[in-house]
Amino acid sequence: TDVVMEEKPVKADVPEEYTQGNIKIYPAAKSPEYADAKLELKMPETGAAVQSPVKFDFEVSNYELGVQTSDAADKGLANSDKGQHIHLIVDNGPYSAHYEPDFEKEFDPGHHIAIAFLSRSYHESVKNGSAHKVFQFTVGDAAGEQTDLSQPMLFYSRPKGDYTGAGTNKILFDFFPVNADLGAGKYSVKLTINNNMEFEFDTWQPYYVEGLPMGENTFKIDLIDDQGNVVTGPVTSATRTFTLSE
């Protein structure tokens, strides 16, 4: 369950701020970095053919699952009362949050591409190089299909689900590029809000979004190459609908 902690003034770290209509997007306040945090995958082996429910087993180092991130009370964001966790994203669908390093999950037969990364209690991903794992697996009796996991990818994390009350004031926008360095003359991420507003980001960092209307909102993200073209691939775009209510 998400609860909203008290909001305190926020100082943006990087000047990548946009205002369009009532919508304001700006870099998130700095969070505890967890530079040494590490996530390793023990099972399933990447590329394996497995049966559903799939058994997952991770090893977490220098990071504690199930505790509140130290600055959670200052963020003014939707925050999990169960604490820090792992986000598991499969085929760029909505993530599932896991507060233990081992769990089981049902999947349809077929080939699946996944990322798991460490998440702070307010659902912001840990962005150091060792805190995530990209892998693939095939559910069912067929031999494991293989996708080249070295190609550019972009996974969608937040926003997701239902936001209520004070939790609607400031929404965390967080994504996870893989094999795609963001920056001037490099890759960027295009965000389309409610099919009528576009924003582009070339800094990999979390952002806050204010001024979204009540009711259903839709975020679409696309990975953009250095020529301004949408990158095509198995995991380069995603669309998610979430709800804000008083």
How would you characterize the largest beta sheet? 5 strands, antiparallel
Order of strands across the main sheet? 2-3-18-15-13
How many helix segments?
A: 1
Molecular shape? globular
Number of strands: 20
Task: Give an account of the 3D structure.
This protein starts with a strand and ends with a strand. The strands form 5 sheets. A 5-stranded antiparallel beta sheet has the order 2-3-18-15-13, with no helix packed on it. About 3% of the residues have low confidence. It has 246 residues and is mainly β. The radius of gyration is 18 Å and the shape is globular. The protein contains 1 helix and 20 strands.
Can I get a quick summary?
This protein is mainly beta and 246 residues long. 2% of the residues lie in helices and 46% in strands.
List the helices and strands and how they pair.
Elements: E1 2-4, E2 18-20, E3 23-27, E4 38-43, E5 48-50, E6 54-61, H1 72-75, E7 78-80, E8 85-90, E9 96-98, E10 102-105, E11 110-119, E12 132-139, E13 153-158, E14 162-164, E15 171-178, E16 188-193, E17 197-201, E18 207-210, E19 215-224, E20 237-245
Parallel strand pairs: 5-12, 14-20
Antiparallel strand pairs: 1-7, 2-3, 3-18, 4-6, 6-10, 8-9, 8-11, 11-12, 13-15, 15-18, 16-17, 16-19, 19-20
